[in-house]
C-alpha cells in the first residue's frame, strides 16, 4: 500500500456555485445535433463572434491551436458541398443491410442548404513546428484538438439558441479540393449552423430508433479494464450484472397479447405458433403490440477446437479462419441469407487458431487461439470461459445499442459439432451415440471415432451439469461460451434471440443452466439435421420455426426464421380487430 497522502489543510480552489454549475450541465445535456427544423433568420455577427471565441478557447496539443474556421454563406459553395454529401449518402445507403437502409432512408443527415451559415473546422498538422509538445508521439492530437474546438462551438451555440449539425458525409480530400483549402490542412468538421424551431430532448437518431443510449455503468472501469464500477460503487462483474438484469416475461403485456390475438380479424389460434411468438415478444418487450424485430443482426462467433486433433472431421482446421474471411467478403451462405432478409452480419473472432488480418467488419475478440483437446484435459480454463461469455454479452450490448431489435446466433468452428454433442449429452443425459451427428458430412468410421471421442471426454471429465462454467471449461468451445453470452445479454436487454442449429442448442442448454429465465428471450429458429439438436430442443421445450434439413451453422437457420418472427410481430400491429374493422365475430 502506498503511504496515504496527508489531507491538505487549505481548501481547494472553488468550483462554481450551484446555479452556475447547473447551467454548465444544462448546456451539456441540452446540446443537440440538429438536422431538422432550421430557420432562415440571419445570425448576428456578435453572436457568431461569441461562438467562434468559445471554439478558439479550446484546449490543444502543445497549445498549438491547430484549427481554422472557414465561415461559408455562399449559396454556390453550399450547393457544391450539398452535392458531395448527397453522393456519399447514396454510397453509404448502398452499403447497408436492407432493413438498415430502409431506416436510413427516413433519416435526414445534413442541413447544408437550410442553414444560413456553414462552418468548416480544419486542423493544421504542421502548426507549431516540428516540436509541438505532445504531438510527436500521437500525430492525431492535432485533429483531436480541433474536435474539442467543435465541441466548444457546439455548446456555445446551444447557449445562444443556435442549432448545429455536424456533417461527415464527405470524402475529406475531395472536400479540401472543392473548398480550395491549402492541401496540408485536414478537414475535421463541416457544421451547419442556424436558429431552430426547437431543440429535441433526445438525439434524433435515438428518437428514430437508429440507436440506443449506452448506460454510464457500461463504460466506467475501476483501475483495470473490465472492472466496471461507477465512482463509489463496488466493481461488478459483467456476467453477474447481466444475470441480475434477466427477468421473466411481463405478465401484463403477455395478457394483453393473448387478448389482442382473440380480437384480431382471424379465427382464434389460426396463426398457430406465430401467436405464441408474438405473445412472447410482447412479454419480452413489455409492450403490446411488441416492436417489430427489425433491424436484426446475426453474430457469428468463430473459434477452433483442440479436439480436431482426434480426427473427428475431414476438414482442416484452417477452414475456420478461411470461412471468416469468406463471411467478411460476403461470399458465404449466411451473407446470401442475410442479404435476403435484410440482416447485418457481425463476425467475431473469439478463438480462431491462427492470426486473422484486421478487416472491416471483423471484431477481434480472441480469448485464446482455439481450445485444447478435451480428450486429454480441459478444453480451456474457467477464466477463458468467463472471458468468452463476456465477449458474447458485449456483442449483444453493442448490437442492441446500435439499434438492432433481434439478435441471431451464428457460429463457425471446424470440429465444433463434437463439442456441441458433448455439451448436449451432459445436459440431456442422452447417450453420446444418439446426440453425435455427422456434422459437415463424415463417413461411418469417422462417426464411430467421434462418438468414442465424446464418450471418452465425458468419462475423463465427469462433468457436473450443476456447474455450467465447469462443464464449458471441460468440454465447450469458445464460440459456445460467446453464444451463451449473447443469449444472456439479449435476455437482459429484453431483446429476442433467434437460435440457429445444434451449437446454438448446446449453448442454450448451458445458458439455461446459468439463468433459467434467459430462455424466455429465445426462439428456436430451425431444427437442424444433427441428431443432437433434436435432443437439445426437446430438453429446452422449444419448437423450431423452420425444419428444412439444414446442417450448416453460420446462423443460416436463424436467418431463415427471422421473417417468420417479424411477421408474427407485424401481424399484431397491422391486423385489424373485429370491432375496428366491423367484422362480425363467430357466434
Ligand atoms: C464526429 C461526428 C460526426 C457526425 N456526423 C454526422 C453526420 O454526418 N450526419 C448527421 O446527421 N449527424 C452527424 N453527427 C451527429 C451525431 O449523429 C449525433 O451527435 C449523435 O446522434 C448524438 O446526438 P446529439 O448530438 O444530439 O446528442 C456527427 C457527430 C459527430 C460527433
- Under CATH, the homologous superfamily of the largest domain reads Nicotinate-nucleotide-dimethylbenzimidazole phosphoribosyltransferase (CobT), large domain
Question: How many alpha or pi helices?
Answer: 22
The SS-based structural class is: alpha/beta
Task: Please bin the fraction of helical residues.
Answer: 40-55%
Strand content: 5-15%
CA distance, first residue to last residue: 80 Å
Keywords: Cobalamin biosynthesis, Glycosyltransferase, Transferase
Family: Belongs to the CobT family.
InterPro entries: BluB, Nict_dMeBzImd_PRibTrfase, Nict_dMeBzImd_PRibTrfase_bact, Nict_dMeBzImd_PRibTrfase_N, Nict_dMeBzImd_PRibTrfase_sf, Nitroreductase, Nitroreductase-like
GO biological process, one term: cobalamin biosynthetic process
Can you lay out the helices and strands and say which pair or pack?
Layout: H1 18-30, H2 45-56, E1 67-72, H3 75-95, H4 98-105, E2 117-123, H5 141-159, E3 162-167, H6 172-178, E4 186-195, H7 204-207, H8 238-244, H9 251-263, H10 273-285, E5 296-303, H11 318-329, H12 333-341, E6 344-351, E7 362-364, H13 382-401, E8 406-412, H14 416-428, H15 432-435, H16 444-461, H17 468-475, H18 478-492, E9 497-499, H19 502-514, E10 522-524, H20 531-540, H21 556-574, H22 578-581
Parallel strand pairs: 5-6, 5-8, 6-7, 8-9, 9-10
Antiparallel strand pairs: 1-2, 2-4, 3-4
Helix pairs in contact: 2-5, 8-18, 9-10, 10-21, 12-21, 13-17, 13-18, 14-16, 14-19, 14-20, 18-19, 19-20
The structure holds flavin mononucleotide.
Amino acid at each position: 500500500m502506498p503511504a496515504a497522502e496527508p489531507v491538505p489543510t487549505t481548501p481547494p480552489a472553488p468550483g462554481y456555485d450551484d446555479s452556475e454549475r447547473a447551467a454548465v450541465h444544462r448546456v451539456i445535456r441540452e446540446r443537440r445535433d440538429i438536422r431538422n427544423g432550421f430557420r432562415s433568420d440571419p445570425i448576428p455577427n456578435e453572436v457568431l463572434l461569441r461562438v467562434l471565441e468559445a471554439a478558439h478557447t479550446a484546449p490543444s496539443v502543445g497549445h498549438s491551436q491547430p484549427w481554422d474556421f472557414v465561415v461559408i454563406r455562399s449559396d454556390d459553395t453550399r450547393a457544391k458541398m450539398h452535392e458531395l454529401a448527397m453522393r456519399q449518402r447514396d454510397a453509404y445507403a448502398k452499403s447497408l443491410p436492407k432493413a438498415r437502409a430502409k431506416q436510413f432512408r427516413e433519416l435526414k443527415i445534413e442541413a447544408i442548404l437550410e442553414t444560413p451559415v456553414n462552418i468548416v473546422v480544419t486542423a493544421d498538422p504542421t502548426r507549431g513546428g516540428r516540436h509541438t509538445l505532445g504531438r510527436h508521439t500521437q500525430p492525431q492530437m492535432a485533429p483531436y484538438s480541433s474536435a474539442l474546438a467543435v465541441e466548444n462551438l457546439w455548446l456555445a451555440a446551444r447557449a445562444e439558441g443556435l442549432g448545429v449539425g455536424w456533417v461527415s458525409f464527405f470524402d475529406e480530400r475531395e472536400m479540401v479540393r472543392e473548398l480550395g483549402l491549402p492541401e496540408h490542412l485536414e478537414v475535421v468538421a463541416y457544421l451547419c449552423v442556424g436558429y431552430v424551431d426547437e431543440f429535441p430532448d433526445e438525439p434524433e437518431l435515438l428518437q428514430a430508433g437508429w440507436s440506443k443510449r449506452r448506460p454510464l455503468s457500461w463504460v466506467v472501469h475501476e483501475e483495470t479494464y473490465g472492472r466496471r464500477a461507477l465512482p463509489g460503487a463496488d466493481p461488478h462483474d459483467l456476467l453477474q450484472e447481466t444475470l441480475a438484469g434477466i427477468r421473466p416475461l411481463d405478465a401484463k403485456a403477455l395478457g394483453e397479447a393473448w387478448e389482442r390475438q382473440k380480437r384480431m380479424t382471424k379465427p382464434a389460434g389460426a396463426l398457430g405458433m406465430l401467436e405464441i411468438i408474438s405473445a412472447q415478444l410482447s412479454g419480452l418487450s413489455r409492450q403490446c403490440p411488441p416492436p417489430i424485430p427489425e433491424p436484426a443482426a446475426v453474430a457469428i462467433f468463430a473459434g477452433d477446437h483442440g479436439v480436431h486433433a482426434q480426427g473427428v472431421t475431414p476438414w482442416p482446421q484452417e477452414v475456420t479462419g478461411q470461412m471468416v474471411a469468406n463471411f467478411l467478403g460476403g461470399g458465404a451462405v449466411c451473407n446470401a441469407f442475410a442479404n435476403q432478409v435484410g440482416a447485418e452480419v457481425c463476425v467475431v473472432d473469439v478463438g480462431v487458431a491462427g492470426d486473422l488480418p484486421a478487416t472491416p467488419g471483423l471484431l477481434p475478440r480472441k480469448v485464446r487461439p482455439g481450445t485444447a483437446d478435451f480428450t486429454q484435459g480441459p478444453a480451456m480454463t474457467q477464466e477463458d470461459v468467463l472471458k468468452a461469455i463476456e465477449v458474447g454479452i458485449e456483442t449483444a450490448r453493442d448490437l442492441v445499442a446500435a439499434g438492432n431489435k433481434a439478435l441471431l446466433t451464428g457460429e463457425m468452428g471446424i470440429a465444433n459439432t463434437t463439442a456441441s454433442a458433448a455439451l448436449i449429452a451432459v445436459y440431456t443425459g442422452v447417450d453420446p451415440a444418439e446426440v453425435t451427428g455427422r456434422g459437415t458430412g463424415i463417413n461411418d468410421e469417422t462417426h464411430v471415432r467421434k462418438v468414442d471421442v465424446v464418450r471418452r471426454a465425458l468419462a475423463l471429465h465427469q462433468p457436473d451439469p450443476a456447474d455450467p462454467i465447469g462443464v464449458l471449461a471441460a468440454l465447450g468451445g469458445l464460440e459456445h461460451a460467446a453464444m451463451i453470452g449473447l443469449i444472456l445479454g439479449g435476455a437482459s436487454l429484453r431483446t429476442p434471440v433467434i437460435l440457429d442449429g445444434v451449437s446454438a442448442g448446446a449453448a442454450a442448454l448451458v445458458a439455461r443452466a446459468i439463468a433459467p429465465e434467459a430462455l424466455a428471450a429465445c426462439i428456436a429458429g430451425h431444427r437442424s439435421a444433427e441428431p443432437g439438436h433434436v435432443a437439445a430442443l426437446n430438453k429446452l421445450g422449444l419448437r423450431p420455426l423452420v425444419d428444412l434439413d439444414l446442417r450448416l451453422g453460420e446462423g443460416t437457420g436463424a436467418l431463415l426464421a427471422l421473417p417468420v418472427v417479424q411477421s408474427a410481430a407485424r401481424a399484431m400491429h397491422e391486423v385489424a380487430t373485429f370491432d375496428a374493422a366491423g367484422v362480425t365475430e363467430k357466434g
